[in-house]
């Protein structure tokens, strides 16, 4: 059977402002939570931005966006996922008026994308809460952030209503349970936060997300607004019924967030979880009505699957994208210990679609690896990243299988389509891109861009709408 993707399928790549823009203090931008986290998620924080924070310069997309977008267009991108830095628009988060230079920058980026017919896919909040909101309000632990977010959302929806059609509210919203500072700008140290604190903060984000859907559809009914979930399917480690039930529980920890976004209310299974963990969500009178504004589609990241077990002797976590589960004995892992499971992507696509019957969008998937820049026989600098080609090919073959299963899929954007700074460790040596950026963890490098072998491979995948993939 030939591999077939739907007509109009949105092929592209994904990035985040704090990991690639740089220009952290230019043109009126305020500090974000990322600017004082030189080691990324692994911590610790600093009092002020320091030179060893790779994200302050990133890969300098802020000054090189035309060059980079031209390369994306050469690959044939139909869409490009990027985020708006909230503190570039409202430097302190609670400002009364937006920063015009920040707004103008994204105008310029969207205009450049339009020049090549590339649809922007914009994440409104991608792991970079304005630092002042974290310090002064304790981030999303404070209900006041809903109002500040509403002001931000109204500003960008109104400004870009004719330039952006596809929007995502919060990046990997479920990750805040595991990384409250990075994901939700919560200043209180994680070890001092109770489950009550965390789920109350999540409630504030979920209300803000639904409010964004409501406002967006009022400003432009053509907007397509989605949620973004960190996707990790959980398999039982053994066929023991207790392991199967544990896998169901672990899945629900993540599906809870998608359930509210897609169905507009808290799922019944959370009643037991809240009761057993002494959690009582404080709701404002209008919250239940706001939550009924459900998303148009569900987007998610997928890097790894996980196993679950009720056996405490075997319940030892492996490594993964913020969420750590029991390693699967049947799978190999990347250089960073993330287990590689292409069939897990087909599985989670079917899981989401069976559950919600809403269009899906894979907005992150890729392989982080140490790439070696070489000079080929023609004198061109490149990277022979056959390992990345194999990883992406095998995952996309499973995506095609899911489409054949009946899953409605809007598009696919690989993570870090151009090398950028890692969110978890703030390294540059962990590279995901089709485009190599000459910058290194010691701060050296020219920032020159070079096409990897995977660049032309992905170009062919897009031009053939997936027909060039190898089963």
Automatic annotation (TrEMBL):
Top-rank EC class of the record's enzyme: hydrolase
GO BP: any one term: carbohydrate catabolic process
Keywords from the UniProt entry: Glycosidase, Hydrolase
EC number(s) stated in the UniProt entry for this protein: 3.2.1.86
Single GO MF annotation: 6-phospho-beta-glucosidase activity
GO cellular component, one term: cytosol
Keyword DNA-binding in record: no
Keyword Hydrolase: yes
Family: Belongs to the glycosyl hydrolase 1 family.
Name of the featured protein: 6-phospho-beta-glucosidase AbgA
Organism: Clostridium saccharoperbutylacetonicum N1-4(HMT)
């Amino acid at each position: 059977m030939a591999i077939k993707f739907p007509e109009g399928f949105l092929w592209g790549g994904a990035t985040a402002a704090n990991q690639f823009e740089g220009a952290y203090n230019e043109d009126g931008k305020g500090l974000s939570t990322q600017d004082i986290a030189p080691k990324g998620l692994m911590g610790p924080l600093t009092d002020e931005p320091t030179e060893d924070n790779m994200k302050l310069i990133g890969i300098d997309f802020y000054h090189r966006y035309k060059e980079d977008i031209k390369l994306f267009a050469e690959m044939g991108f139909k869409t490009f996922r990027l985020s708006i830095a909230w503190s570039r628009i409202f430097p302190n988060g609670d400002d009364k008026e937006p920063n015009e230079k920040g707004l103008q920058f994204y105008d310029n980026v969207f205009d450049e994308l339009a020049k090549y017919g590339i649809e922007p896919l914009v994440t409104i909040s991608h792991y970079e809460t304005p630092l002042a909101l974290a310090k002064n309000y304790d981030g999303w632990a404070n209900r006041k952030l809903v109002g500040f977010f509403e002001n931000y959302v109204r500003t960008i929806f109104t400004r870009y209503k004719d330039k952006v059609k596809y929007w995502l509210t919060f990046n990997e919203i479920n990750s805040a349970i595991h990384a409250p500072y990075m994901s939700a700008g919560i200043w209180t140290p994680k070890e001092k936060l109770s489950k009550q604190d965390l789920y109350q903060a999540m409630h504030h984000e979920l209300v803000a997300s639904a409010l964004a859907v409501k406002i967006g559809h009022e400003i432009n009914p053509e907007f397509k607004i989605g949620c973004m979930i960190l996707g990790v399917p959980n398999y039982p480690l053994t066929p023991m019924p207790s392991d199967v039930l544990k896998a169901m529980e672990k899945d629900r920890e993540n599906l809870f967030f998608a359930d509210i976004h897609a169905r507009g209310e808290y799922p019944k299974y959370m009643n037991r979880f809240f009761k057993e963990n002494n959690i009582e969500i404080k709701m404002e009178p209008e919250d239940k009505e706001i939550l009924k504004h459900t998303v148009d589609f569900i987007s998610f990241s997928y890097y790894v699957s996980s196993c679950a077990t009720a056996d405490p002797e075997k319940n030892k976590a492996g490594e993964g994208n913020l969420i750590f589960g029991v390693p699967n004995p049947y799978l190999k892992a990347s250089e960073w210990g993330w287990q590689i499971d292409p069939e897990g992507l087909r599985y989670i696509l079917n899981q989401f679609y069976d559950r919600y019957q809403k269009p899906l969008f894979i907005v992150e998937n890729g392989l982080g690896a140490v790439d070696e820049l070489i000079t080929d026989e023609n004198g061109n600098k490149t990277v022979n990243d056959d390992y990345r080609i194999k990883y992406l090919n095998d995952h996309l073959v499973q995506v095609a299988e899911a489409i054949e299963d009946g899953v409605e899929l809007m598009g696919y954007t690989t993570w870090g389509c151009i090398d950028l700074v890692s969110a978890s460790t703030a390294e540059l040596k962990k590279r995901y891109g089709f485009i190599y950026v000459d910058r290194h963890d010691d701060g050296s490098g020219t920032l020159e861009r070079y096409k990897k072998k995977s660049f032309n491979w992905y170009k062919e995948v897009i031009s053939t709408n997936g027909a060039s993939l190898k089963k």
